[in-house]
Design brief:
Elements (H helix, E strand, L loop, with lengths): L1 E3 L10 H14 L7 E2 L5 E9 L5 E4 L7 E4 L2 E4 L6 E7 L4 H11 L9 E9 L2 E6 L6 H8 L7 E6 L12 H41 L3
Parallel strand pairs: 1-9, 3-10
Antiparallel strand pairs: 2-3, 3-7, 4-6, 5-6, 8-9, 8-10
Main location: cytoplasm
Protein name: RASF3 protein
Keywords: Cytoplasm, Cytoskeleton, Metal-binding, Microtubule, Phosphoprotein, Zinc, Zinc-finger
Length: 214
């Protein structure tokens, strides 16, 4: 179970400290996704982001796959659980820019304001999850934590239910969501009807056995 953790303050590192950390980082990398320090002090590298989306996303119809509802040239569909994407970013990129780049990479038409980036840390047999602010820098967090995803990983989620910015959704998106919800409601209703019909049959069978003349 995730536990909310207080956000850690950003510590300004000198160019020499950044260089040392990058050298240490690259010496520990096992997947060849190393960081590079440029002459201007900006460094580049890779982050992996796990997609944990509960609501459907909207993409161009040619890109959509899986369970979906169509509207003109767009498709709303549920992204498979556990999907992980890799992004190449720089130390100047903010959380908001990372979210925008991630959605653009996969032709997602949804407003980036619907999503939030979280960091997940494992400490003392606990899983700590913290929502990142739009101005934080994910690559800096990756550098400080090191390359091991057990120490730090990134997760893309929708804003919490109470934080949903419904004005960020277009009319076709909302209509698609309603169609999907209607479909799921009908499916669940049919499952419940079959379950109670089976119960009813067993009860009637049991009652018939009780009242059957001996």
């Amino acid at each position: 179970k995730d536990v909310q953790k207080e956000r850690e303050p950003h510590v300004c590192l000198s160019k020499e400290e950044v260089k040392e950390k990058i050298q240490s980082y690259n010496s520990s990398v096992t997947d060849k996704l190393k960081m590079t320090l440029n002459a201007n002090g900006i460094y580049t590298g890779f982050i992996k982001v796990q997609m944990e989306l509960c609501r459907p996303i909207t993409v161009q119809s040619s890109q959509g796959q899986g369970r979906c509802a169509h509207s003109n040239n767009e498709t709303a569909f549920y992204l498979p659980d556990g999907c992980v994407n890799t992004l190449h970013i720089s130390s100047t990129n903010t959380v908001r820019e990372v979210i925008e780049a991630l959605l653009k990479k996969f032709f997602v038409a949804d407003n980036p304001a619907k999503f939030a980036l979280y960091k997940r840390c494992h400490k003392e047999d606990q899983v700590y999850t913290c929502k990142l602010s739009d101005r934080e820098h994910p690559l800096y967090l990756r550098l400080v934590a090191g390359p091991r995803t057990e120490m730090l990983s990134f997760v893309l989620r929708e804003h919490e239910t109470g934080e949903v910015m419904w004005e960020a959704f277009s009319i076709p998106e909302l209509q698609n969501f309603l169609r999907i919800l209607d479909k799921e409601e009908n499916e669940q209703l049919q499952i419940l009807k079959k379950r109670y019909a089976a119960y009813r049959d067993k009860l009637e069978e049991a009652l018939g056995g009780v009242w059957k003349p001996g």
